[in-house]
Amino acid sequence: MNKITRLAAAFVLSGLLLAAPAAQAAPALLGASANFELEVNEMELEITADDPRPKAYLYTGGQSDYYFIVWMSSNPTVASVDGDGRVTGRSAGEATITAITDRGECAACKVTVRKESGDAASKKPALDHTTLNLVIQYNNAHPSQKLQLINTSGSFVYAYQWMSSNPEVATVDPEGLVTAQKPGTTTVTALATNGQALRCAVTVNSDVGKVTLNKRDLLLRTVGSKEALTASVAVEDGTNVPITWVSSNPGVATVDASGVVTAVADGEAKITALSPDGRFDSCSVFVGLAADKYDTEEDLAEELKLPDPYVAVRMNRLS
């Protein structure tokens, strides 16, 4: 059958469907085809105050080498359809959307259009996360997390395409699985069948080589007292990475090559542990009278978090 003959046949068949009382008769007229189908055979749209003309796309499965596809609705006052398979809800009720190929194959989808109840607004589909933070570890170079659509119950809405604006930072697969590649930022977008473009801001950081001290705050109440700090580096066998220890104020507190801090005089100092690749962590040390102002190291830690000028000046002096 040549192209012109197939075109004429399709229009004859579409005329038969239009003359039928309802497009539900389409399968009986043409018969279902194993090679041509719609991805969904039922769809629900909801008319709301914010979305008086809800839309969704119908997509075909099976073979795709058709010259054209004719789309039609059994009840355009309830739901209309354009040449791209985009369905628009117009009033409450039911309609059947039928797609016919130039070969005479057909498939149909039942569309139910509802009006939003006056008591509660319908929730639109959304991603379960609008921001996502992934951290690369030395033992997990490509952490991942799956994004999913929510608020889709009964709506037959799904994400038909996932995209990353910067795949070098993080990729996303067809199921919404986001996988970190290197530090940076990207935006993952899910295109939904109701026409929404849903986005998630993804940030990827790396903890590989990060230095962490066992304490961030230390109180030494008497001159001459000692306490050992330990540093771990986020690499394989990180406890054996050589660390350089530095005191910002050796007149108050010194630190030896093993991380042992010794109180020298009343005051404040900052002890820093530095790795060979330049990563570091620090501990604030208060000695003698400076330490006596705090009952516990937790009290000191809480004060150091406060955004008051006294603390800001103190931290600048320790830096």
From TrEMBL:
It comes from the Bacteria. Coiled coil: none annotated. Keywords: Signal. Pfam families: Big_2 (PF02368). Gene3D superfamilies: 2.60.40.1080. Residues 32-111, 128-202, 207-285 form the BIG2 domain. Residues 1-25 form the signal peptide. InterPro entries: Big_2, Invasin/intimin_cell_adhesion, NUP210-like. This is BIG2 domain-containing protein. It comes from Faecalibacterium prausnitzii. The lineage of its organism: Bacteria, Bacillati, Bacillota, Clostridia, Eubacteriales.
